[in-house]
Design goal:
- This protein is mostly helical and about 450 residues long.
- The protein is about 80% helix and about 0% strand.
- The longest helix is centred in the C-terminal third of the chain and has 30 residues, at about 410-435.
- The radius of gyration is 26 Å and the shape is globular.
Length: about 450
């Protein structure tokens, strides 16, 4: 919250208490939550960063001291030091949970210390007693042990670390062909309630946007890893379009909690939709051959079925978001959120043998969504939305130019026209904005 808004809030608190709207305890809780007036949000962020940096320096120094004398220590002493490090982190976390939960610096430093100490303890004990395990097993144990930390402390650093472990484990699993995806999907889904709760409680803070992006990346990596490994092209198309469209719709619907997380999620989701759509706009390799079930040697495993369930769930979310956006007269956003339906329809056409129709449908969708975004940006005077529409149209035109047998002269003229459209639209909108402010 900026300084001006905070000053207004603190001026209103005595009035709200006097009128019985707010209790004195509630007013004091708000003052503790936002801090003193002469210390706006940037000061809290700086304290958190400095505290975390100090904790990393202390932890790094301790590890260096231990590494220097590690070979001279007995096995029980090594194990005791590793477990002692973990107990120290848990003790700090317990102190934060009981006494410091309203202080972000304590919460984030405790969460980071707990997260790293679990990994260090597992690695040190395994090295001390020469326990046979691979990197995937290391990630799995570490991931499950730190899952409760974000919920216990409310630490967003720990949540981001947890989702990073999910992503790392997905890459490590790739190519091993085991039952791991079931475990991966369960862990990724169990982390989602924390991200959504942060959006509802602290959606106005920048750290919440990082948690949301980490959760979205984990979901995308897990689903695409499973479908790629199973060589299930139909599921890859359905899952990617449904997920990206759902994420865009969630960040765009008017009823979603406000905050910077919306823009941070909306931009990458839109870009992923554009890239996926451009790939699917070709009528060759993306759609043929395509089969209803995986082509992997092991057939349909539990991870594949869970990916299918997740794809259907995201398709439902994207469809509901598109319906809400269209009902609220936001046709451009509604068109982008329809990407999941376009992907599902394209898969249906391709399975029926109509590859050209599936590619044509994607081309029509990109053309319509880009045109609606450009039109909406021009009508509302939104430079960003107009540029998004122009970018989508230009990218589609460029792909089609290179996909056809047109001569270089025709292609060159087309690119010149697109460039002039970009320049003209931006100049017109900038002039309109200056006239509106004058």
């Amino acid at each position: 919250m900026n300084r001006k808004a905070l000053a207004w809030l603190y001026a209103e608190l005595p009035i709200l208490v006097r009128d019985g709207v707010l209790s004195p305890e509630g007013a004091e809780a708000l003052r503790r939550r936002y801090g003193p007036l002469d210390d706006p949000g940037g000061g809290r962020v700086l304290r958190i960063v400095l505290a975390a940096f100090g904790a990393l320096l202390v932890g790094g120094g301790i590890l260096l001291i231990l590494a220097h004398n590690w070979e001279d220590l007995s096995r029980p002493l090594r194990a005791g030091l590793a477990i002692g490090l973990l107990l120290a982190a848990q003790g700090l976390g317990l102190h934060t949970f009981l006494r410091r939960r309203d202080q972000p610096a304590w919460v984030e430093v405790s969460g980071a210390f707990w997260l790293t100490s679990v990994g260090a303890c597992i690695a040190l004990v395994s090295q001390t007693y020469h326990l046979e395990s691979d990197l995937e097993s290391f990630y799995r144990v570490w991931m499950w042990l730190v899952l409760p930390v974000p919920y216990l402390l409310g630490s967003r650093v720990a949540a981001i670390g947890f989702f990073a472990l999910v992503v790392a484990r997905s890459f490590e699993w790739h190519g091993w062909r085991s039952d791991l995806p079931v475990d991966l999907w369960l862990s990724a889904m169990l982390g989602l309630p924390f991200a959504w709760n942060e959006v509802r409680r602290r959606g106005s803070e920048w750290a919440t946007a990082l948690v949301v992006l980490a959760a979205a990346a984990a979901l995308a990596v897990v689903g695409l890893t499973v479908s790629f490994e199973d060589r299930w092209k139909a599921m890859t198309i359905l899952f990617s379009t449904a997920l990206f469209a759902a994420l865009y719709g969630i960040a765009s619907v008017p009823g979603a909690p406000p905050g910077p997380w919306r823009g941070r999620l909306r931009g990458p989701a839109w870009l992923a939709l554009i890239v996926t759509g451009l790939v699917l706009s070709f009528d060759g390799s993306p759609w043929s051959p395509i089969e209803p079930l995986p082509r992997g040697a092991d057939g349909v495993g539990p991870g594949s079925w869970l990916t299918g369930v997740a794809a259907v769930a995201w398709l439902a979310v994207a469809s509901l978001a598109a319906l809400r956006l269209l009902r609220d007269r936001l046709p451009a956003d509604g068109a982008w959120a329809c990407g999941g339906l376009v992907g599902a329809s394209g898969v249906t056409l391709a399975l029926a043998g109509h590859d050209v129709a599936a590619a044509a449908l994607v081309n029509v969708w990109l053309l319509a969504a880009g045109s609606l975004a450009l039109r909406s940006g021009l009508r509302r005077g939104s430079l960003g939305e107009a540029n998004r529409g122009l970018f989508a149209l230009a990218a589609l035109a460029a792909v089609r130019f290179f996909d056809t047998d047109l001569g270089f002269l025709v292609r060159g003229v087309g690119f010149v026209v697109l460039g002039l459209a970009f320049l003209g639209t931006n100049l017109w909108l900038l002039r309109r904005g200056r006239e509106g402010r004058s």
